[in-house]
Amino acid sequence: MEREKEQILYVVIPCYNEQEVLPETSKRLLEKMTSLIDRGMISGESKIMFVNDGSRDRTWEMIENLHDSNPIYLGVKLSRNRGHQNALLGGLMTAKEYADMVISMDADLQDDIDVVDQFVEKYYEGCEIVYGVRSARDTDTIFKKYTAEGFYKIINMMGGEVIPNHADYRLMSRRALEELENYKEVNLFLRGIVPMIGFKTDVVTYERQKRFAGESKYPLKKMLALAVDGITSLSIKPIRFIVFLGMFIFVCSIAMLIYSLVQHFLGNTSIGWTSLIVSIWAIGGLQLLAIGVIGEYIGKIYLETKERPKYIIERVLR
Ligand code: UDP
Ligand code: MG
Predict the structure, then answer these.
(1) Which secondary structure element, helix H or strand E, spans residue 257, and what is its range?
(2) Going by C-beta distance under 8 Å and a sequence separation of 6 or more, which residues neighbour residue 143?
(3) Residue 35 Cα, ligand 2 centroid: separation in angstroms?
(4) pLDDT digit string (tens) for 187-219?
(5) Which of 26, 161, 171, 278 has CA atoms 20 to 30 A from the CA of 131?
(6) What is the pLDDT of residues 26-75, one digit of tens each?
(7) pLDDT score, position 277
(8) In a mutational test of the pocket of ligand 1, which residue from 12, 13, 15, 16 has the highest number of ligand atoms less than 8 Å from its CB?
C-alpha cells in the first residue's frame, strides 16, 4: 500500500556529552532536512530532535541555542543519565506524538545520513519499519568488529531475532511506535524488541564511518552490559542449558557411584583422593555458575516487578 507524500519526519538523536560533534551534526542534518523538504519528500513540519541524556558538558546549552536559532531543532532533556537505549526510547515516544515517521541515529553521524532518503522512500512504499544495516566494518577497530560479530552470533544461537549488523539506525512509522509502547519491559534491548513488532519491513545497507570527533560513549563495560542484557532479555536458553548440564552431571554421578561401589567390593577403598578433589571443584564451580545465571534472571524479574519509569523527561523544547 502506497502512502501519500510529504508526511512529517522526526529525526531522534540521543546525546551524551556530545559537545564536540553537535555543531557539525546539527549542520549536516539541517542540510539533509532542507533538501528533503525542498524536494517535497517530507513535510515542512519535520524536525530534528536531540535528547540530552544527562550530559555533564555543554551539550544541553548547545541544544537550547540551536532551538533558539532555528525551530526545526527540538530538545528533550532527561532528568539524568539513563543510558543510550532509554534516552532513545524517551525521544521516540515524545516524537511519536507529532510525527508520522521517526528515524533514530547516533550523534556522531557514524551512520551515513544520505541513507535517510532511502528510509523515507521505503516508508512511502508502505514499510512500517526500515532497518539500517552496515555493509562493512572497516572503520571499526578489529576488537570491536569481532566482539560485535560474536555478539550477533550468540544472540541468534540463543534464539533472539536480531538483524545482524543493525544497531539503532532505523525508521519507524507512528503505527510501529505505538506498538513498541506496549512492550512494557524495563530491561530494554530495542534491537531485539523491534523485530518482534512485525508488519512490512525492509533493510537498507550503508557503510559505517568513523566517529569524526569526541570519544565513544560505549566503553567495553557498557558494551558487555548491553550484550548480557540483550541475551537475557530475549532468551531463557541459558537456564535451559543449565538444566541439561545438571542432568548430565547427575548421570555422571550415578556412574561414579557404581564405580565406587565396585571398587569398594573389590577392596580398593583407599583410592579416590584425586577424584574427590576434582569433583568438589568441578561441581562447586558448576553450581556457582548455575546460580549466577539464574541470579541474572531473578535480578531482571526483580527490576521488572518494580515497574519503575525508564526515563523522566525534565523539559521539552518546542
Ligand atoms: N549515548 C547516550 N547515553 C549514554 C551513552 C551513549 O545517549 O549513556 C549516545 C551517544 O551520545 C551517541 C549514541 O548513544 O549518540 C552512541 O554512542 P557512541 O557513538 O559513543 O557508541 P559507539 O558508536 O562507539 O558504539
Ligand atoms: Mg558512535
Answers:
(1) helix 237-266
(2) none
(3) 25
(4) 778 888 888 888 999 999 988 877 787 788 777
(5) 26
(6) 999 999 999 999 998 899 899 999 999 999 999 999 999 999 999 999 99
(7) 73
(8) 16
C-alpha cell at 314: 525534565
Cβ < 6 A, ligand 1 pocket: 14-16, 18, 53, 81, 83-84, 87, 106-108, 110, 211, 216-218
pTM: 0.77
DSSP strands (E only) in 138-199: 166-173
**Strand pairing of 313-317 and 47-52?**
unpaired
Q: How far apart, in whole angstroms, are the C-alpha atoms of residue 200 and residue 183? A: 19
| Mean predicted confidence (pLDDT) in 253-280 | 76
How far does residue 291's CA lie from ligand 1's centre (Å)?
32
User: Other CB atoms closer than 10 Å to residue 245's CB: what's the count?
Assistant: 13
- What share of the chain has pLDDT > 90, as a percent? 42
Of 101, 110, 44, nearest to 72 by C-alpha is 44
DSSP 58: S
Task: Give the mutation target among 77, 216, 218, 229 for probing the ligand 1 site: most ligand atoms within 8 A of CB.
Answer: 218
